[in-house]
Protein backbone atom coordinates (compact mmCIF):
# COMPACT_ATOMS: atom_id res chain seq x y z
CA UNK A 1 0.00 0.00 0.00
CA UNK A 2 1.28 3.47 -0.93
CA UNK A 3 0.58 6.15 1.73
CA UNK A 4 1.23 9.82 0.95
CA UNK A 5 1.65 12.08 4.00
CA UNK A 6 1.02 15.78 3.45
CA UNK A 7 2.77 17.92 6.06
CA UNK A 8 5.29 15.16 6.72
CA UNK A 9 7.67 17.49 8.55
CA UNK A 10 5.16 18.13 11.34
CA UNK A 11 5.25 16.54 14.79
CA UNK A 12 1.89 14.87 14.23
CA UNK A 13 2.35 13.53 10.68
CA UNK A 14 6.11 12.84 10.63
CA UNK A 15 6.12 10.11 13.32
CA UNK A 16 3.20 8.37 11.60
CA UNK A 17 5.10 8.35 8.31
CA UNK A 18 8.06 6.76 10.10
CA UNK A 19 5.76 4.15 11.69
CA UNK A 20 4.18 3.30 8.32
CA UNK A 21 7.64 2.92 6.77
CA UNK A 22 8.79 0.64 9.61
CA UNK A 23 5.62 -1.44 9.14
CA UNK A 24 6.57 -2.10 5.51
CA UNK A 25 4.22 0.30 3.76
CA UNK A 26 5.36 2.43 0.82
CA UNK A 27 5.64 5.99 2.08
CA UNK A 28 5.96 9.33 0.30
CA UNK A 29 5.05 12.84 1.30
CA UNK A 30 5.52 16.57 1.13
CA UNK A 31 5.84 19.68 3.22
CA UNK A 32 5.62 23.37 2.46
CA UNK A 33 9.11 23.94 3.91
CA UNK A 34 12.30 22.02 4.49
CA UNK A 35 13.38 21.16 8.03
CA UNK A 36 15.87 19.19 10.07
CA UNK A 37 13.20 16.60 10.76
CA UNK A 38 12.62 16.01 7.04
CA UNK A 39 16.35 15.42 6.61
CA UNK A 40 16.15 12.98 9.50
CA UNK A 41 13.25 11.10 7.88
CA UNK A 42 15.24 10.79 4.67
CA UNK A 43 18.13 9.28 6.60
CA UNK A 44 15.67 6.73 7.97
CA UNK A 45 14.84 5.64 4.41
CA UNK A 46 11.90 7.91 3.56
CA UNK A 47 13.53 9.31 0.42
CA UNK A 48 10.43 10.25 -1.59
CA UNK A 49 9.68 13.60 0.07
CA UNK A 50 9.12 16.80 -1.87
CA UNK A 51 9.34 20.39 -0.63
CA UNK A 52 6.35 22.27 -1.96
CA UNK A 53 2.81 20.96 -2.24
CA UNK A 54 1.74 21.45 -5.82
CA UNK A 55 -0.85 19.72 -7.96
CA UNK A 56 1.82 18.86 -10.54
CA UNK A 57 4.19 17.22 -8.05
CA UNK A 58 1.64 14.84 -6.62
CA UNK A 59 0.25 14.07 -10.09
CA UNK A 60 3.72 13.07 -11.28
CA UNK A 61 4.26 10.85 -8.25
CA UNK A 62 0.83 9.25 -8.63
CA UNK A 63 1.60 8.45 -12.28
CA UNK A 64 4.77 6.60 -11.25
CA UNK A 65 3.12 4.64 -8.42
CA UNK A 66 -0.58 5.14 -7.65
CA UNK A 67 -1.30 6.57 -4.20
CA UNK A 68 -3.69 4.43 -2.17
CA UNK A 69 -4.21 6.78 0.76
CA UNK A 70 -3.60 10.52 1.14
CA UNK A 71 -3.12 11.45 4.81
CA UNK A 72 -3.07 15.08 5.88
CA UNK A 73 -2.91 17.13 9.05
CA UNK A 74 -5.63 19.45 10.30
CA UNK A 75 -3.34 22.36 9.52
CA UNK A 76 -3.23 21.44 5.81
CA UNK A 77 -6.99 21.65 5.46
CA UNK A 78 -7.37 24.75 7.66
CA UNK A 79 -4.47 26.87 6.44
CA UNK A 80 -4.68 26.11 2.72
CA UNK A 81 -8.11 26.55 1.20
CA UNK A 82 -8.32 24.42 -1.94
CA UNK A 83 -5.06 22.67 -1.06
CA UNK A 84 -3.79 21.38 -4.44
CA UNK A 85 -2.75 17.92 -3.26
CA UNK A 86 -6.08 17.31 -1.60
CA UNK A 87 -7.89 18.61 -4.69
CA UNK A 88 -5.91 16.24 -6.93
CA UNK A 89 -6.70 13.23 -4.74
CA UNK A 90 -10.40 14.04 -4.67
CA UNK A 91 -10.44 14.34 -8.47
CA UNK A 92 -8.62 11.01 -8.83
CA UNK A 93 -10.74 9.21 -6.24
CA UNK A 94 -7.77 8.61 -3.94
CA UNK A 95 -8.81 7.87 -0.38
CA UNK A 96 -8.13 10.97 1.74
CA UNK A 97 -8.33 11.44 5.50
CA UNK A 98 -6.82 13.16 8.49
CA UNK A 99 -4.01 11.47 10.38
CA UNK A 100 -6.22 10.16 13.18
CA UNK A 101 -8.34 8.07 10.82
CA UNK A 102 -5.21 6.52 9.34
CA UNK A 103 -3.68 5.72 12.74
CA UNK A 104 -6.93 4.32 14.13
CA UNK A 105 -7.19 1.89 11.24
CA UNK A 106 -3.48 1.04 11.45
CA UNK A 107 -3.77 0.16 15.16
CA UNK A 108 -6.84 -1.99 14.53
CA UNK A 109 -5.19 -3.80 11.61
CA UNK A 110 -2.26 -4.81 13.86
CA UNK A 111 -4.50 -5.82 16.79
CA UNK A 112 -2.72 -3.38 19.09
CA UNK A 113 -4.10 -2.19 22.41
CA UNK A 114 -4.14 1.60 22.40
CA UNK A 115 -2.90 3.53 25.42
CA UNK A 116 -4.03 7.09 24.73
CA UNK A 117 -2.83 10.14 26.64
CA UNK A 118 -5.12 13.14 26.22
CA UNK A 119 -5.65 16.47 27.96
CA UNK A 120 -5.28 20.20 27.51
CA UNK A 121 -1.76 20.22 28.91
CA UNK A 122 0.88 17.74 29.99
CA UNK A 123 0.07 15.03 27.46
CA UNK A 124 3.44 15.12 25.63
CA UNK A 125 5.49 14.68 28.80
CA UNK A 126 3.11 12.04 30.13
CA UNK A 127 3.23 10.13 26.84
CA UNK A 128 7.03 10.24 26.91
CA UNK A 129 7.00 8.99 30.50
CA UNK A 130 4.81 6.05 29.49
CA UNK A 131 7.16 5.20 26.61
CA UNK A 132 10.11 5.40 29.02
CA UNK A 133 8.39 3.15 31.57
CA UNK A 134 7.54 0.49 29.00
CA UNK A 135 11.07 0.59 27.65
CA UNK A 136 12.79 0.39 31.03
CA UNK A 137 10.49 -2.40 32.22
CA UNK A 138 11.18 -4.42 29.08
CA UNK A 139 7.62 -4.34 27.73
CA UNK A 140 7.45 -4.06 23.94
CA UNK A 141 5.35 -1.16 22.64
CA UNK A 142 4.90 0.92 19.52
CA UNK A 143 4.32 4.65 19.95
CA UNK A 144 3.85 8.13 18.53
CA UNK A 145 4.57 11.36 20.41
CA UNK A 146 4.95 14.95 19.29
CA UNK A 147 8.39 15.71 20.71
CA UNK A 148 11.97 14.51 20.42
CA UNK A 149 13.30 12.17 23.12
CA UNK A 150 16.82 11.07 23.94
CA UNK A 151 15.75 7.47 24.54
CA UNK A 152 13.37 6.75 21.63
CA UNK A 153 12.18 7.94 18.23
CA UNK A 154 9.13 10.18 17.96
CA UNK A 155 7.43 7.34 16.12
CA UNK A 156 8.20 3.62 16.35
CA UNK A 157 6.49 0.44 15.16
CA UNK A 158 7.59 -2.67 17.01
CA UNK A 159 6.21 -5.79 15.29
CA UNK A 160 6.45 -7.70 18.58
CA UNK A 161 4.35 -5.21 20.56
CA UNK A 162 0.85 -5.66 21.96
CA UNK A 163 0.49 -1.98 22.87
CA UNK A 164 0.53 1.35 21.05
CA UNK A 165 1.20 4.46 23.16
CA UNK A 166 -0.20 7.63 21.61
CA UNK A 167 -0.41 11.32 22.39
CA UNK A 168 -4.08 11.85 21.51
CA UNK A 169 -4.68 15.44 20.45
CA UNK A 170 -8.12 16.97 20.97
CA UNK A 171 -7.56 19.66 18.33
CA UNK A 172 -10.06 19.31 15.46
CA UNK A 173 -11.61 16.45 17.46
CA UNK A 174 -8.80 14.13 16.37
CA UNK A 175 -8.94 12.00 19.53
CA UNK A 176 -12.55 10.98 18.91
CA UNK A 177 -11.42 8.57 16.18
CA UNK A 178 -10.09 6.19 18.83
CA UNK A 179 -11.46 3.58 21.23
CA UNK A 180 -8.52 3.12 23.62
CA UNK A 181 -7.74 0.12 25.78
CA UNK A 182 -6.68 2.63 28.45
CA UNK A 183 -6.79 6.42 28.51
CA UNK A 184 -5.00 8.90 30.73
CA UNK A 185 -6.46 12.41 30.99
CA UNK A 186 -3.68 14.74 32.15
CA UNK A 187 -5.86 17.77 32.84
CA UNK A 188 -8.79 19.57 31.24
CA UNK A 189 -8.99 23.32 30.76
CA UNK A 190 -10.97 24.89 27.89
CA UNK A 191 -8.80 25.47 24.80
CA UNK A 192 -9.02 25.68 20.99
CA UNK A 193 -11.95 28.08 20.83
CA UNK A 194 -11.82 27.89 17.01
CA UNK A 195 -12.93 24.25 17.27
CA UNK A 196 -14.88 24.33 20.54
CA UNK A 197 -16.68 27.69 20.73
CA UNK A 198 -17.90 27.09 24.28
CA UNK A 199 -16.51 25.46 27.38
CA UNK A 200 -19.42 23.01 27.25
CA UNK A 201 -18.45 21.92 23.71
CA UNK A 202 -14.92 21.23 24.89
CA UNK A 203 -15.98 19.27 27.95
CA UNK A 204 -18.49 17.25 25.93
CA UNK A 205 -15.71 16.06 23.60
CA UNK A 206 -13.76 14.72 26.58
CA UNK A 207 -16.86 13.04 27.98
CA UNK A 208 -17.34 11.30 24.63
CA UNK A 209 -13.67 10.31 24.49
CA UNK A 210 -13.83 8.80 27.99
CA UNK A 211 -16.94 6.85 27.05
CA UNK A 212 -15.03 5.27 24.15
CA UNK A 213 -12.23 3.97 26.38
CA UNK A 214 -12.23 0.61 28.19
CA UNK A 215 -10.44 2.09 31.21
CA UNK A 216 -9.69 5.68 32.22
CA UNK A 217 -7.16 7.10 34.64
CA UNK A 218 -8.26 10.63 35.52
CA UNK A 219 -7.84 13.25 38.22
CA UNK A 220 -10.68 13.93 40.64
CA UNK A 221 -10.68 17.63 39.80
CA UNK A 222 -11.36 16.79 36.14
CA UNK A 223 -14.11 14.37 37.12
CA UNK A 224 -15.79 17.26 38.91
CA UNK A 225 -15.00 19.76 36.18
CA UNK A 226 -16.70 17.87 33.36
CA UNK A 227 -19.39 16.41 35.63
CA UNK A 228 -18.96 12.72 34.92
CA UNK A 229 -19.95 9.88 37.20
CA UNK A 230 -17.00 7.46 37.38
CA UNK A 231 -18.23 3.91 36.93
CA UNK A 232 -16.29 0.69 37.16
CA UNK A 233 -14.03 1.66 34.24
CA UNK A 234 -12.35 4.61 36.00
CA UNK A 235 -9.42 5.18 38.32
CA UNK A 236 -9.89 8.63 39.86
CA UNK A 237 -6.64 9.98 41.30
CA UNK A 238 -6.47 12.38 44.25
CA UNK A 239 -4.28 15.40 43.53
CA UNK A 240 -3.36 15.64 47.23
CA UNK A 241 -2.41 11.96 47.65
CA UNK A 242 0.78 11.96 49.79
CA UNK A 243 2.03 8.89 47.92
CA UNK A 244 2.81 11.18 44.96
CA UNK A 245 5.81 12.36 46.96
CA UNK A 246 7.44 8.97 46.37
CA UNK A 247 8.32 10.53 43.03
CA UNK A 248 11.42 12.67 43.24
CA UNK A 249 11.34 14.38 39.84
CA UNK A 250 11.69 18.15 39.93
CA UNK A 251 8.42 20.01 39.44
CA UNK A 252 4.95 19.36 40.82
CA UNK A 253 3.51 18.84 37.33
CA UNK A 254 6.17 16.26 36.51
CA UNK A 255 5.51 14.36 39.72
CA UNK A 256 1.78 14.31 38.99
CA UNK A 257 2.33 13.19 35.39
CA UNK A 258 4.58 10.40 36.60
CA UNK A 259 2.06 9.32 39.26
CA UNK A 260 -0.63 9.01 36.61
CA UNK A 261 1.67 6.83 34.50
CA UNK A 262 2.59 4.73 37.55
CA UNK A 263 -1.07 4.11 38.40
CA UNK A 264 -1.84 3.26 34.77
CA UNK A 265 1.05 0.79 34.59
CA UNK A 266 -0.06 -0.78 37.87
CA UNK A 267 -3.52 -1.31 36.38
CA UNK A 268 -2.17 -2.78 33.15
CA UNK A 269 0.45 -4.97 34.81
CA UNK A 270 -0.69 -5.86 38.35
CA UNK A 271 2.21 -8.29 38.73
CA UNK A 272 4.68 -5.39 38.54
CA UNK A 273 5.40 -3.88 42.01
CA UNK A 274 4.44 -0.22 42.15
CA UNK A 275 7.76 0.61 43.81
CA UNK A 276 9.62 -0.74 40.76
CA UNK A 277 7.51 1.39 38.40
CA UNK A 278 8.13 4.49 40.54
CA UNK A 279 11.87 3.79 40.58
CA UNK A 280 11.89 3.69 36.78
CA UNK A 281 9.92 6.94 36.50
CA UNK A 282 12.25 8.69 38.94
CA UNK A 283 14.98 8.14 36.33
CA UNK A 284 12.96 9.79 33.54
CA UNK A 285 15.43 11.92 31.52
CA UNK A 286 12.95 14.44 30.16
CA UNK A 287 11.78 15.40 26.70
CA UNK A 288 12.63 18.08 24.16
CA UNK A 289 11.16 21.54 24.76
CA UNK A 290 9.65 20.57 28.10
CA UNK A 291 11.81 22.49 30.56
CA UNK A 292 14.76 21.59 28.37
CA UNK A 293 18.09 23.16 29.31
CA UNK A 294 19.75 24.81 26.30
CA UNK A 295 22.65 26.41 28.19
CA UNK A 296 23.54 26.99 31.85
CA UNK A 297 20.51 28.68 33.49
CA UNK A 298 18.60 28.93 30.15
CA UNK A 299 15.55 26.72 29.58
CA UNK A 300 12.94 26.37 26.85
CA UNK A 301 9.42 25.13 27.59
CA UNK A 302 6.43 24.57 25.32
CA UNK A 303 3.91 25.96 27.78
CA UNK A 304 1.02 27.64 26.00
CA UNK A 305 -1.99 27.51 28.33
CA UNK A 306 -2.16 29.27 31.73
CA UNK A 307 -2.18 26.00 33.75
CA UNK A 308 0.86 24.71 31.85
CA UNK A 309 2.63 28.07 32.24
CA UNK A 310 1.96 27.99 35.99
CA UNK A 311 3.40 24.48 36.11
CA UNK A 312 6.58 25.56 34.30
CA UNK A 313 6.93 28.56 36.61
CA UNK A 314 6.48 26.36 39.70
CA UNK A 315 9.31 24.12 38.50
CA UNK A 316 11.52 27.14 37.77
CA UNK A 317 10.90 28.62 41.22
CA UNK A 318 11.48 25.21 42.83
CA UNK A 319 14.97 25.28 41.31
CA UNK A 320 15.87 28.99 41.47
CA UNK A 321 13.68 30.54 44.13
CA UNK A 322 12.89 34.17 43.32
CA UNK A 323 15.59 34.43 40.66
CA UNK A 324 13.36 33.51 37.71
CA UNK A 325 13.31 35.57 34.51
CA UNK A 326 10.67 34.86 31.86
CA UNK A 327 10.79 35.32 28.09
CA UNK A 328 7.26 34.83 26.77
CA UNK A 329 6.22 33.96 23.21
CA UNK A 330 2.49 33.36 22.93
CA UNK A 331 1.39 30.42 20.81
CA UNK A 332 -1.12 31.96 18.36
CA UNK A 333 -2.59 35.44 18.46
CA UNK A 334 -6.05 33.85 18.60
CA UNK A 335 -5.15 32.08 21.84
CA UNK A 336 -3.79 35.32 23.37
CA UNK A 337 -7.22 36.89 22.86
CA UNK A 338 -8.78 33.78 24.39
CA UNK A 339 -6.59 33.80 27.54
CA UNK A 340 -5.96 37.54 27.88
CA UNK A 341 -7.90 37.87 31.14
CA UNK A 342 -5.79 35.07 32.66
CA UNK A 343 -2.51 36.84 31.76
CA UNK A 344 -3.13 39.36 34.54
CA UNK A 345 -1.06 38.12 37.47
CA UNK A 346 0.32 35.06 35.68
CA UNK A 347 3.94 36.26 35.85
CA UNK A 348 3.79 38.20 39.12
CA UNK A 349 6.52 36.07 40.73
CA UNK A 350 9.05 36.69 37.97
CA UNK A 351 12.09 38.87 38.53
CA UNK A 352 11.74 40.26 35.00
CA UNK A 353 9.55 39.47 31.96
CA UNK A 354 10.39 39.94 28.30
CA UNK A 355 7.48 39.70 25.84
CA UNK A 356 8.25 38.85 22.20
CA UNK A 357 5.81 38.67 19.24
CA UNK A 358 3.42 35.74 19.34
CA UNK A 359 3.97 32.77 17.03
CA UNK A 360 1.31 33.00 14.33
CA UNK A 361 -0.49 30.00 12.79
CA UNK A 362 -4.13 29.05 12.16
CA UNK A 363 -5.17 32.61 13.09
CA UNK A 364 -8.57 34.29 13.15
CA UNK A 365 -7.91 37.21 10.82
CA UNK A 366 -10.81 39.16 12.33
CA UNK A 367 -8.92 39.58 15.58
CA UNK A 368 -6.45 42.46 15.94
CA UNK A 369 -2.82 41.49 16.43
CA UNK A 370 -1.80 41.75 20.09
CA UNK A 371 1.73 43.17 20.00
CA UNK A 372 4.33 42.72 22.76
CA UNK A 373 3.31 46.16 24.05
CA UNK A 374 -0.36 45.12 24.13
CA UNK A 375 0.44 41.86 25.91
CA UNK A 376 2.69 43.63 28.40
CA UNK A 377 -0.21 45.84 29.46
CA UNK A 378 -2.40 42.77 29.98
CA UNK A 379 0.01 41.36 32.60
CA UNK A 380 -1.30 43.78 35.21
CA UNK A 381 -0.05 46.86 37.03
CA UNK A 382 2.12 45.05 39.58
CA UNK A 383 4.70 43.96 36.98
CA UNK A 384 4.83 46.97 34.67
CA UNK A 385 8.20 48.08 36.07
CA UNK A 386 9.56 44.57 35.36
CA UNK A 387 8.26 43.91 31.85
CA UNK A 388 10.03 44.70 28.59
CA UNK A 389 8.38 44.38 25.15
CA UNK A 390 11.06 42.82 22.93
CA UNK A 391 11.92 41.26 19.60
CA UNK A 392 14.23 38.40 18.67
CA UNK A 393 17.31 40.57 18.32
CA UNK A 394 20.75 41.19 19.78
CA UNK A 395 19.38 43.25 22.66
CA UNK A 396 17.28 40.31 23.84
CA UNK A 397 20.20 37.91 23.36
CA UNK A 398 22.47 40.09 25.50
CA UNK A 399 19.78 40.45 28.18
CA UNK A 400 19.21 36.67 28.40
CA UNK A 401 22.93 36.01 28.50
CA UNK A 402 23.51 38.58 31.23
CA UNK A 403 20.70 37.20 33.41
CA UNK A 404 22.07 33.66 33.03
CA UNK A 405 25.62 34.76 33.89
CA UNK A 406 24.49 36.47 37.09
CA UNK A 407 22.68 33.31 38.24
CA UNK A 408 19.09 33.91 37.22
CA UNK A 409 17.11 31.03 35.73
CA UNK A 410 15.80 32.22 32.36
CA UNK A 411 12.58 30.38 31.46
CA UNK A 412 11.77 30.86 27.79
CA UNK A 413 8.13 29.99 27.14
CA UNK A 414 8.21 29.18 23.46
CA UNK A 415 6.07 27.99 20.58
CA UNK A 416 8.49 26.00 18.44
CA UNK A 417 8.70 25.65 14.69
CA UNK A 418 10.24 27.83 12.02
CA UNK A 419 11.16 31.36 13.12
CA UNK A 420 9.97 30.76 16.68
CA UNK A 421 11.67 31.84 19.89
CA UNK A 422 12.71 28.22 20.44
CA UNK A 423 14.43 28.03 17.03
CA UNK A 424 16.06 31.43 17.64
CA UNK A 425 17.41 30.31 21.01
CA UNK A 426 18.99 27.22 19.48
CA UNK A 427 20.78 29.45 16.99
CA UNK A 428 22.65 31.38 19.70
CA UNK A 429 26.02 30.73 21.26
CA UNK A 430 25.42 31.66 24.88
CA UNK A 431 28.71 30.15 26.02
CA UNK A 432 30.70 32.59 23.92
CA UNK A 433 28.32 35.47 24.47
CA UNK A 434 27.87 35.95 20.74
CA UNK A 435 24.89 35.44 18.47
CA UNK A 436 25.21 33.49 15.25
CA UNK A 437 22.55 35.69 13.70
CA UNK A 438 24.23 39.06 14.09
Largest sheet data: 7 strands, mixed
- Quick one: how many beta strands? 20
Strand proportion, as a percent range, falls in 15-25%
Cα shape: globular
Q: What value does the average pLDDT take?
A: 93
What ranges have pLDDT less than 50 throughout 5 or more consecutive residues? none
Estimated helix fraction:
25-40%
How many helices? Answer: 16
Class based on secondary structure composition and strand pairing = alpha/beta
Task: State the distance separating the first and last CA atoms.
Answer: 48 Å
Compute the CA-based radius of gyration: 22 Å
Q: How are the strands ordered across the major sheet?
A: 8-7-9-6-10-11-12
Structural key phrases:
seven-stranded mixed beta sheet; alpha/beta; 438 residues; six-stranded mixed beta sheet; 16 helices
Provide a concise account of the structure shown.
Helices cover 37% and strands 20% of the residues. It has 16 helices and 20 strands.
Would you give an account of this structure?
- The structure is a single chain.
- The protein is of the alpha/beta class and 438 residues long.
- 37% of the residues lie in helices and 20% in strands.
- It is built from 16 helices and 20 strands.
- It has a seven-stranded mixed beta sheet.
- Helix 14 links the parallel strand 16 and strand 17.
- Helix 3 packs across helix 5, helix 7 packs across helix 10 and helix 10 runs antiparallel to helix 11.
- The N and C termini lie far apart (48 Å).
- The model has no long low-confidence stretch (mean pLDDT 93).
